[in-house]
Amino acid sequence: MQIPVINRSRHALPEYQTAHAAGLDVRANLAAPVTLGPLQRALIPTGLFLEIPVGYEMQVRPRSGLAYKHGIGLVNSPGTIDADYRGELQVLLVNLSDQAFVVQDGERIAQLVVARHEVVAWQPVEALSETGRGAGGYGSTGSA
Protein backbone atom coordinates (compact mmCIF):
# COMPACT_ATOMS: atom_id res chain seq x y z
CA MET A 1 0.00 0.00 0.00
CA GLN A 2 1.29 3.45 -0.81
CA ILE A 3 0.37 6.41 1.39
CA PRO A 4 1.14 9.98 0.27
CA VAL A 5 3.20 11.73 2.96
CA ILE A 6 4.77 15.15 3.48
CA ASN A 7 7.76 14.96 5.81
CA ARG A 8 8.55 18.35 7.37
CA SER A 9 10.62 16.77 10.13
CA ARG A 10 14.38 16.35 10.35
CA HIS A 11 13.93 12.58 10.57
CA ALA A 12 13.37 9.59 8.34
CA LEU A 13 9.85 8.46 7.57
CA PRO A 14 8.32 5.98 10.03
CA GLU A 15 9.67 2.49 9.45
CA TYR A 16 9.20 -1.10 10.48
CA GLN A 17 11.88 -2.28 12.91
CA THR A 18 11.61 -5.96 11.94
CA ALA A 19 10.53 -7.87 8.84
CA HIS A 20 7.15 -8.93 10.28
CA ALA A 21 6.29 -5.92 12.44
CA ALA A 22 2.73 -4.56 12.11
CA GLY A 23 3.59 -1.07 13.37
CA LEU A 24 5.81 1.62 11.91
CA ASP A 25 7.78 3.56 14.54
CA VAL A 26 7.20 7.32 14.38
CA ARG A 27 9.61 9.88 15.84
CA ALA A 28 9.20 13.11 17.80
CA ASN A 29 10.02 16.26 15.84
CA LEU A 30 10.99 18.76 18.55
CA ALA A 31 12.87 22.07 18.57
CA ALA A 32 13.69 21.39 22.25
CA PRO A 33 13.19 18.40 24.59
CA VAL A 34 9.80 18.11 26.31
CA THR A 35 9.68 17.04 29.97
CA LEU A 36 6.62 15.11 31.09
CA GLY A 37 6.20 15.10 34.85
CA PRO A 38 4.21 12.35 36.58
CA LEU A 39 0.65 12.21 35.21
CA GLN A 40 1.36 15.01 32.72
CA ARG A 41 0.45 14.77 29.07
CA ALA A 42 1.71 16.59 25.98
CA LEU A 43 0.93 16.69 22.30
CA ILE A 44 4.20 15.77 20.55
CA PRO A 45 4.61 16.84 16.90
CA THR A 46 6.05 14.50 14.27
CA GLY A 47 6.35 16.83 11.26
CA LEU A 48 4.35 14.32 9.18
CA PHE A 49 1.24 14.99 7.11
CA LEU A 50 -0.54 11.92 5.68
CA GLU A 51 -3.22 11.10 3.13
CA ILE A 52 -4.83 7.90 4.34
CA PRO A 53 -6.82 6.07 1.62
CA VAL A 54 -10.61 6.05 1.97
CA GLY A 55 -11.73 2.86 3.71
CA TYR A 56 -8.64 2.83 5.98
CA GLU A 57 -7.52 4.43 9.21
CA MET A 58 -4.04 4.90 10.66
CA GLN A 59 -3.99 3.76 14.28
CA VAL A 60 -1.53 5.46 16.64
CA ARG A 61 -0.46 3.04 19.36
CA PRO A 62 1.93 3.15 22.33
CA ARG A 63 5.40 1.65 22.12
CA SER A 64 5.68 -1.24 24.54
CA GLY A 65 9.30 -0.38 25.47
CA LEU A 66 8.38 3.17 26.54
CA ALA A 67 5.40 1.84 28.46
CA TYR A 68 7.37 -0.85 30.28
CA LYS A 69 10.60 1.05 30.96
CA HIS A 70 9.21 4.54 31.63
CA GLY A 71 5.41 4.35 32.06
CA ILE A 72 4.80 6.38 28.88
CA GLY A 73 1.53 5.71 27.07
CA LEU A 74 -1.03 7.38 24.87
CA VAL A 75 -4.06 9.10 26.36
CA ASN A 76 -6.35 8.00 23.52
CA SER A 77 -5.03 4.61 22.64
CA PRO A 78 -5.28 3.69 19.94
CA GLY A 79 -5.69 7.08 18.35
CA THR A 80 -7.22 7.19 14.88
CA ILE A 81 -6.15 9.24 11.88
CA ASP A 82 -9.12 9.40 9.51
CA ALA A 83 -8.88 9.41 5.71
CA ASP A 84 -10.04 13.04 5.52
CA TYR A 85 -7.55 14.47 8.08
CA ARG A 86 -4.78 16.56 6.53
CA GLY A 87 -3.16 18.19 9.56
CA GLU A 88 0.11 17.27 11.21
CA LEU A 89 0.27 13.89 12.92
CA GLN A 90 0.78 14.61 16.62
CA VAL A 91 1.01 12.03 19.39
CA LEU A 92 -0.72 12.61 22.75
CA LEU A 93 1.74 11.11 25.26
CA VAL A 94 1.04 10.67 28.97
CA ASN A 95 3.49 9.88 31.77
CA LEU A 96 1.89 7.28 34.04
CA SER A 97 5.01 6.83 36.16
CA ASP A 98 6.15 8.64 39.31
CA GLN A 99 9.31 9.94 37.58
CA ALA A 100 9.76 12.77 35.07
CA PHE A 101 10.46 11.64 31.50
CA VAL A 102 12.19 13.73 28.83
CA VAL A 103 11.06 13.29 25.24
CA GLN A 104 14.00 13.95 22.91
CA ASP A 105 13.93 15.09 19.30
CA GLY A 106 14.07 12.02 17.05
CA GLU A 107 12.94 9.61 19.77
CA ARG A 108 10.58 6.84 18.68
CA ILE A 109 7.38 7.77 20.53
CA ALA A 110 4.59 5.64 19.03
CA GLN A 111 3.80 3.13 16.34
CA LEU A 112 1.44 3.45 13.40
CA VAL A 113 -0.75 0.60 12.16
CA VAL A 114 -2.89 0.82 9.02
CA ALA A 115 -6.30 -0.87 9.31
CA ARG A 116 -9.21 -1.30 6.93
CA HIS A 117 -12.61 -0.35 8.33
CA GLU A 118 -16.23 -0.63 7.32
CA VAL A 119 -18.83 2.12 7.13
CA VAL A 120 -21.86 1.35 9.30
CA ALA A 121 -25.44 1.63 8.13
CA TRP A 122 -27.73 1.28 11.16
CA GLN A 123 -30.58 -1.21 10.88
CA PRO A 124 -33.26 -0.28 13.44
CA VAL A 125 -35.02 -3.38 14.87
CA GLU A 126 -37.41 -4.14 17.73
CA ALA A 127 -35.38 -7.05 19.19
CA LEU A 128 -31.89 -8.55 18.99
CA SER A 129 -30.95 -12.22 18.63
CA GLU A 130 -30.42 -14.22 21.83
CA THR A 131 -26.93 -15.23 23.03
CA GLY A 132 -25.51 -17.13 26.00
CA ARG A 133 -24.13 -13.89 27.43
CA GLY A 134 -27.24 -11.82 26.89
CA ALA A 135 -27.13 -8.43 28.56
CA GLY A 136 -24.26 -9.36 30.92
CA GLY A 137 -21.98 -6.36 31.31
CA TYR A 138 -18.41 -5.74 32.44
CA GLY A 139 -16.85 -8.85 33.94
CA SER A 140 -19.95 -10.97 33.40
CA THR A 141 -18.23 -13.66 31.29
CA GLY A 142 -15.90 -14.72 34.12
CA SER A 143 -18.48 -15.14 36.90
CA ALA A 144 -20.47 -18.23 37.73
From TrEMBL:
GO terms for molecular function: dUTP diphosphatase activity; magnesium ion binding. One of its GO terms (biological process) is dUMP biosynthetic process. Keywords: Hydrolase, Magnesium, Metal-binding, Nucleotide metabolism. Substrate binds at R63, S64, G65, N76, T80, I81, D82. Transmembrane segments: none annotated. Its cofactor is Mg(2+). This enzyme is involved in nucleotide metabolism: it produces dUMP, the immediate precursor of thymidine nucleotides and it decreases the intracellular concentration of dUTP so that uracil cannot be incorporated into DNA. NCBIfam families: dut, PRK00601.1. PANTHER family: DEOXYURIDINE 5'-TRIPHOSPHATE NUCLEOTIDOHYDROLASE. This is Deoxyuridine 5'-triphosphate nucleotidohydrolase. It comes from Hymenobacter actinosclerus.
